[in-house]
Description:
Blueprint: H1 5-24, E1 33-41, E2 44-53, H2 56-69, E3 76-79
Antiparallel strand pairs: 1-2, 1-3
Amino acid sequence: MKVNKLSLRTAVAAGMVGAVFTLAALPADAATLSYSCNRYVKGQYAGSTNVSASNQAEAERLAGEKFRKLGMSYDYVKCW
């Protein structure tokens, strides 16, 4: 069977459009939000970063990992 190049391109494009619609149909709880996070040392502000997470607890965990990776110490991290 001979495949027409144009029909193959159309099929691939249709598949990509379908994938976009599939991603758009994900449930709202799968969405990520942008959080601004501060690190504190001895109760004093010591720096900030931004992370994307699905909830505040995850944002604080990710920000803590990010600060550690950058060699920045902290007593706690607070995100909003």
